[in-house]
Each structure stands twice: as C-alpha cells, then as structure tokens.
Write a sequence for this structure.
C-alpha cells in the first residue's frame, strides 16, 4: 500500500495548484485526476483578470485574447458599452492552462495520476481505480478539489455550498462583434436569477453560455440565445452547476475542501479560478506542513480556513450580498438600473475602478465619489430602498481593502 502525506482529489486548476504547494513543503503528494489532464470540457468562459496568471505561477502561453470592455444588453435589448483604453481581462485556453499547471505540479514532485478515480474507504484510506488496476493508498490529509458535488466533502461530512445555479455553455464558429469585448445579457427570459455571456475565444470561435436558478431549462434558454443573437455551428456543448456562497465549514479531521467544492467563487460572476487559486495555495501549504508534523486534526487544519477568510472572505461575503440584491431584481428594475448607470461620468468611474476579482472595491470607490451621489441616488428605489443599499454600504465601509499585491493593476472592468 502506497503512503502519502497529502492526497489531492481533483485534477483541475485548483487541485493542481494545491498539490504543487503541498509538495513544496516537502510533503509526499498524490494528485488524482479522472481525466486526461486537459480539464475539458469545462463549463467556463475562461475570462479572468490579468493578475490570475501570476497568482497561479503560469506563463502567457494559455492566453487567447485581451479584453478591454463589455457590451451589456438590458432585458428590452438596450445596450450599455463600457470600454477602457487598457486591457481589463484576458481569455484563457483552459486546456493549455490545466496542462501547464499539472506540469508544474509534477516538476514540484507531485505524483500525478490521470484516468484515475478515488474512493475514500476509511480515515486516511483511499481506493484508487486506474485503467489497468485497482490499488489501495493512505494519506494523512486529503484535499477535496473535486467540484461542487464533492465526494471528499460528502465522505468527511463537510457541508456543501448553500446554493447552486444551473449553467450551460456552447462554443460556436463565429466572429465576435468586437474582438476585445465581452457581451452580457440580463433578463428573466434570457437567464432568470443570473445572466448570459458571449466571450471571444480562439480565432473564429465564441463561447456563449448562461447560468440561471436551478430547475430552469437552461438548454432551451441557450438555444434561444444562440438563434436570436449568435447563429453559428456549435462545436462543443457542456453543462454544469455553479455554487453560490461558501460552505459553512471547509476543514475537518484529516481533510479540507477548496475551490468549487468549498464554494469559493465570486457570487457576482460565478468565476472561480482566481479566488480558488488564492485558497488553493493556502490549502496546499497548510495540508503539507500539518501532515509532516503529524498534526492533521481539525484543530490544526482550521488554520487554512482562517487564512483564506482573511484573504478573500470579506470580498466573497460582499459578493453574496450583491448577488442577492442584484439578481432578485425584476426586469423593469434592471432596465431602470442600467439606464441610470449609462451616464458618461458613472461609466468612466466603472472603467476606472472596476475589478472583477474585487467588486467591493468598485462599490467603495463609487461611495467615495461625492460628485456622483446625485446621479447614483435614483438607484436607491431600484435596488430595494435604503435598507438593502444600507446593508451593502455598511459592509463596504467596514471592509478592509485588499492587500497591496491584490490591488488593481490593469485589472478587470
């Protein structure tokens, strides 16, 4: 029976980062990947901030596009354009990203096992199903980076994220309307409870998808969106679920969860590569050092939760408040809100301060601009009155700004 200090279940970007950082502590680390290492197909638009590559420690080889702005479509079809002179986001080749991260993990000393399924058969015990054999293994700490329906979380009785959205995405053969801009669509007939997107990807390809309240027929909604706005040959189609809100507990004796398994995604956008990467680095380090010290109880591993909460916990909580406020609005109120925002001074402020990794910073910056208050006051009844707005404002004012290494630098708008 093979013995490991740390076993990471899930070979996506977050699992690969966690495994690499565990191995960097000197821990003997196993990474179990059900797939071939490409993490494809993935229900992910691949739109991230430029800082994400440096966070993950990867090269620009996986970069497909630079994005400078967005075209926002209201429920009635009116458009609001937000455009910057600078790069605000990048689009990634998810397969290339994942392969590079797995290569970095292997170079760090991680034993990477592709086409392998893991089952937890007891405390610190794993059953590994590989293409040609079955084998048993032991690990002092298990990291669950195995997605929103995490087997690791279930087996260690860790809670799931509180809410999920249904999501679907197609890649089509079509040129983007603007090669450096994404398109966002709002409305109950388009994506109830969230939004739809169109993101330029590889040459002559567009990633079109949406997320909506669970129980919604997202495939029909996507077909409608494609036929109305993006007719073209569909070359791939994938669906999934997006966790909204973090799990109430992310550690226990001998285990911790990270990324989608822990709900460490941005509730305003559903993106999880940056936030998951922040948490994965911490997860790997804590698991590695704890296993080497043979102190793998929750009393030790809970340091992981303290550290990731300190890094991004407040931002994720703000995002959840904003999600509940924004995505509960009727189409009439969405229409009214976009009309208010579609003013040169407000759009300029959004372009200047906007950051998809830290949306709370935009709210804080807008609140600090007294010259914008008269223009923003009409938003109060739109978002549900002073009580809802006050809760958001109080949260923003009481929250610390991100550390210097996280402050915007050619970041997303």
């Amino acid at each position: 029976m093979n013995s490991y200090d740390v076993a990471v279940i899930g070979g996506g970007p977050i699992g690969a980062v966690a495994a690499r950082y565990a191995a960097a502590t000197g821990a003997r680390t196993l990474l179990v990947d059900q797939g071939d290492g490409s993490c494809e197909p993935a229900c992910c638009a691949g739109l991230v901030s430029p800082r994400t590559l440096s966070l993950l420690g990867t090269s620009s080889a996986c970069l497909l596009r630079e994005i400078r702005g967005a075209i926002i479509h209201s429920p009635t079809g009116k458009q609001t354009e937000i455009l910057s002179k600078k790069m605000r986001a990048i689009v990634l080749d998810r397969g290339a990203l994942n392969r590079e991260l797995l290569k970095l993990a292997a170079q760090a000393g991680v034993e990477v096992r592709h086409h392998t399924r893991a089952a937890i058969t007891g405390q610190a015990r794993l059953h590994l199903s590989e293409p040609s054999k079955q084998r048993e293994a032991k690990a002092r700490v298990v990291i669950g980076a195995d997605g929103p329906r995490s087997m690791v979380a279930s087996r260690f009785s860790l809670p799931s994220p509180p809410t999920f959205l249904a999501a679907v995405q197609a890649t089509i053969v079509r040129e983007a309307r603007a090669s450096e801009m994404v398109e966002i669509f709002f409305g109950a007939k388009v994506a109830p409870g969230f939004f739809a997107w169109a993101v330029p990807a590889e040459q002559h390809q567009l990633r079109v998808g949406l997320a909506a309240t669970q129980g919604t027929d997202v495939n029909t909604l996507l077909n409608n969106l494609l036929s109305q706005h993006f007719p073209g040959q569909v070359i791939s189609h994938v669906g999934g679920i997006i966790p909204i809100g973090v799990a109430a507990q992310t550690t226990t004796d001998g285990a911790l969860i990270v990324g989608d398994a822990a709900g460490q995604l941005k509730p305003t956008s559903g993106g999880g590569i940056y936030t998951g990467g922040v948490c994965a680095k911490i997860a790997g380090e804590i698991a590695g050092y704890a296993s080497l010290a043979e102190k793998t109880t929750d009393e030790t591993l809970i340091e992981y939760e303290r550290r990731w909460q300190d890094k991004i916990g407040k931002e994720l909580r703000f995002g959840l408040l904003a999600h509940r406020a924004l995505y509960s609005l009727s189409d009439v109120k969405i229409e009214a809100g976009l009309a208010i925002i579609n003013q040169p001074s407000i759009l300029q402020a959004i372009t200047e301060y906007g950051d998809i990794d830290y949306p709370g910073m935009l709210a804080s910056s807008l609140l600090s601009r007294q010259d914008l208050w008269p223009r923003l006051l009409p938003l109060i009844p739109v978002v549900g009155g002073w009580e809802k707005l006050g809760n958001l404002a109080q949260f923003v004012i009481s929250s610390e700004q991100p550390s210097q290494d996280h402050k915007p630098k050619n970041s997303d708008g």
Notes: The CA atoms of residues 69 and 83 lie 4 Å apart.
